[in-house]
Amino acid sequence: MSLLAVSIPYWGQSLLRVLGGTVAILLPAGTIVYLFLFKMMSFMQSRLGPMDAGPYGSLQLVAEVGKWMQKEDLAPNGADKRIFRMAPLVVLVSTFLLVVVVPFGPDAYFTNFDGGVFYMLAVSSVSTLGILVAGWSSANKYSLLGGLRAAGQLIAYELPMVLAVVGVVIQAGTMNLQQIVWRQNSDHAAMFGWTGLGNPYLFTQIIGFVVFMIAVQAELTQVPFDMPIAESELVSGYMTEYSGFRFLIFFIAEFATVGVFTMIASVLFLGGWGVPFAWFGWKTTGPGLFDGVANWMNIAGPIILFVKMTVLSFLAMWVRFSYPRLREDQLQRFAWKVLIPVSLLNIMATAILKVVF
Amino acid sequence: MTDIADRHKLSYIAAQAADARLNVELETEGMTLNIGPQHPATHGTLRIIVRLDGEQVVWAEPSAGYMHRGYEKLTEVRTYPQVTTLVNRIDWLGSFANEVPFILAAEKLMGVEAPPRAQWIRTILFELSRIANVSLFLGDLGAQLGAVTPVFYAFRDREYVLNLIELVTGGRFHPNFDRIGGLFDDLPAGWIDETRHVMKRLRNFCDEIEDILINNVVFQKRTRGVGVIPREVALQYGLSGPNLRASGVDWDLRRDQQLPLAYDKVDFKVWTHPDGDSFARCWVRLQETREATKIVDQLIDGLPSGPIMAKVPRIIKVPAGEAWVSTENPLGEMGYYVVSKGDLGPFRVKIRSASFNNISIVPWVLRGVYIPDIVSILASLYFILGDIDR
Amino acid sequence: MVRLSETTSTNTPDTPALPGDSVRESIVSRVRDVIGDALIDSLVKPGDDIWLRVRTDAWRQAGVVLRDVIGCEYFCFLSAIDWLPSPYGRGEDDPTEPAVERDSTITQGYTGGDTRMQVFARVTNLTTHVGVTVKADVPDDVQVVESWSGVYAGANWHEREAHEMFGIDFAGHNDLRNMYLPSDFEGHPLRKDFPLLARMVKPWPGIVDVEPLPGSDDEEGTAS
What we know:
heterotrimer, B: globular, C: two-stranded parallel sheet, globular, disordered N terminus, disordered C terminus
């Protein structure tokens, strides 16, 4: 890492990576929980939300974490104890696996796979296993129903997600996420000949963007797709029997996954950590893609990505607090009969336009 | 008086009465799921046992009685004025409306009629309790189906109505305001202007709910065609109120019977819907709330002056006889069959509560629906536990 | 977007006028035409209401007649009355005093009766806006009447409640279990000889420290 003029030994780099990964998970999760869950939802409901813990309730999350961590670790009598304990960790692990592929800056990344997109889509399904296992091992009929619904829903909505991303991959010509960022922001990036805004795939892949955001909403089991949780019917669905620290893990995993998915969406569609090179006159010289980019982008990049992530998760949360939930046969119908054909059309149109232009 | 051993036995029976068990035969096919008594979907402690085949309901049975307080037995040891306090708590969201049919029945037996001003104010408070009750329904409807936000709007705007009721009666939830022969007290100064503002506010609230909930595409998908109750079945089971009107039956006790209330002096529409599904029930209730605000506006415009209490003796002894009075309460038709023997208190009071009949249709309507539809249907049928169980 | 509030509403201008006594009298005579002398007694209160009393074996038939001939499609309720005066009075007895002897002669109300308990039901005709209350005696020795659950589907739950509260059996009802009380509950609470448990467990607080009712005799003249 050439950020600092000091050469860090490999174990130091690994330690920094682990710390960075933890921050990359917890900071978005915390921000989303405070800003949107506590404050935005409250303001939408004409109330104030938590105000006591810290100024304007900003330390509420700290208080909640402390509360949950000091609770008794319960498991139901008939539950399969070992799997019951493993299930929340599986869900959280999938979030960590996802975040390693997100680029935060020209040199600030954890990994730089050539098949980054492929890896991301594959790994995002790991949480399905965790949810299903949580529902089954709870020895509770409501949890079982929630787990089964989750299995059907999450598998069904994988496909629109994949297909929506394929459009981006065709347009970018690569599955490497750093290259996708470069394609959208570089000095060669132009929308119909105008380099002023770079080429965020938001405009050309608008259909893919909409489909991706809907599929992400469903993957996160958020309203209007929250049949697995369905608070008024299943109490908490697959999470019913979890309390204390394990519930905290589910909770953090849920909002961290919101953060990570919206980060990925901003990388794929909004230009990621970058701003159009044309604004600063950077040029792509040399073999490395970002050789002409200033070093301070390694600090500014994460912040820019964070801002874009906040905007997208605002949209997701806004929909979450406004809509009722769909019944699972309705949401399956929506996935298979509406989203998949639309995203297939999008792929066809992208491929044709890519060849023509 | 019974001796100590008998007293213990009776206490034991009383304690056991608090624990309701139902014998369900063991079935090996399908899964039996217990919804309630503690559950976010049921408005209180209602237990519904469903037998499932996958996610479809094969058989459903509500088990009521978790809140049975023995009202009909309790009325036998109360004097007539004391029954009003008791009866407030049947439908606790629109509680003034519970007192009115009983008072009217007692007045019918006594041959007393309340003076016009009292009748008009009774009607105003009756409609206000309808608005308070149904606006909570509108908010809770969203919550049952997953929309978490309209609940708060409902509670916020309902506060204004509860404030109005408190200004007059002194109680937000349990006014205990009606008396045989009239009312306890008159309206405070400035109440009429306050009411006009609040009614305007509630009309805005109804428009808001229509925009964000009733017209919402997901809501329509969840409620259209779900839980259809045809006209004949609704009549056989004794469904009443908006549930009946949503199945296409044009029957409204405010318009269709003559009671000493001021309904014949105002103009109002009776809303019906031909479909009979969950959406129809929700929509009819929304329209009725709007209509209720218009009724209140007309009533406060034409309120006559005069005394608010007729001349009745201090100690009320209702002459012997039987009387039946039912009114169009927020939940449906609520009526009291009062049997009097010329005593200080009633001999027998049969309380006909709307939710009892509304819920008796649940085994019929829940066959073959999915689990999420259970919630949608129950939410649209709208019951209050105190009304079912008394 | 079309506002839903503008689509459906009705205010039927051809609603029949609120019924006069002629309609009520005609109901009584039509019922008598069908069931003859099973209609024991009737009472039409002018401008008010109808009460009919039928013979116990014609109870179900009365329901069928009301539903089909008179057109009362709407089932209001079904319940029972126990005419025995309560041996506990108004529950205000002082437990330290010896028990009070009370008059236990049974007198029935409108349209009379011969037995301690009566079932009664109310149905309504929605087109003529007339409701009918019909009563029948429950024989004292074997307390069984026919069930109305085949006539009106809603009677199912009402009969379950009447059965658990009064102990009346409904022949032909296929599922007569308790509605509110646990299945092993002993006794029938709404019968007058079943004490109000709240007053047994804790005597009426007004025995001690009670204000007398205002003006212990009728000072004010009765109302018009």
